[in-house]
Amino acid sequence: MYRVVLGHISALSTGDIPPALRQQAPQGKRRESWLAGRALLARECSPLPDIVYGEQGKPAFVNGTPLWFNLSHSGDRIALLLSDEGEVGCDIEVIRPRANWRTLANAVFSQAEHDELEQWQPEQQLAAFWKIWTRKEAIIKQRGGSAWQIVSVDSRNTPHLNVSHCQVGEVSLSVCTPTPFTLSADLLATTPAER
């Protein structure tokens, strides 16, 4: 089973969150996204299992919990990928202009990824950039790796991985799963406030 839930950080972080979770939240700029992520997890997994962190900071449920998850956020959007199949990774990005996106693509995309980008019309290349970017990030996050490893990932040459992508409005979303799963807009759940 795979479940993908989308939400807005601004709504989730100010919603009904148990006081104990609010007390655990870090201070500073990460606070709202942390609270939103815990709110999504608490809605999907009740009671919420304890969370531990891997060597490179990837959160996971404590050993013995037969569920895996990954969270990603961009702007005010947040995505949760929940699985009972094994380790997963997801990445969400709001499709937005980025002054140096071509330079960034030149630095971290493989030749196959560059070829894919060039197949799109110029006005579609920014969305294609975010599509490739989210695939690469989802792969890294599934492995529990660091964003610094993005240059070593070729999302076009992953025969042993299951990577899927969809675009919903202004959002690019990719998932990396241990078994086949095809992401599509009709499979995405939204939080009750967004229905």
Short descriptors:
four-stranded mixed beta sheet; three-stranded antiparallel beta sheet; 195 residues; alpha+beta; 6 helices; single chain
Describe what this molecule looks like in 3D.
With 195 residues, this protein is an alpha+beta fold. The chain is built from six helices and nine strands, in the order βαααβββββαααβββ. It has helices at 9-12, 19-24, 31-44, 101-108, 111-118, 125-143, and strands at residues 2-8, 51-53, 59-61, 68-74, 77-83, 89-94, 162-168, 171-177, 188-190. The strands form three sheets. It has a four-stranded mixed beta sheet. Strands 6-8-7 form a three-stranded antiparallel beta sheet. Strand 7 and strand 8 form a beta hairpin. Helix 5 packs antiparallel against helix 6. The two termini are 22 Å apart. The model has no long low-confidence stretch (mean pLDDT 92).
Strand order of the largest sheet: 4-5-1-9
Weakly predicted, low-confidence segments: none
| Structural class category | alpha+beta
Number of strands: 9
Major sheet details: 4 strands, mixed
Beta fraction of the residues? 25-35%
What series of H and E elements makes up the topology?
EHHHEEEEEHHHEEE
List the helices and strands and how they pair.
Layout: E1 2-8, H1 9-12, H2 19-24, H3 31-44, E2 51-53, E3 59-61, E4 68-74, E5 77-83, E6 89-94, H4 101-108, H5 111-118, H6 125-143, E7 162-168, E8 171-177, E9 188-190
Parallel strand pairs: 1-9
Antiparallel strand pairs: 1-5, 2-3, 4-5, 6-8, 7-8
Helix pairs in contact: 5-6
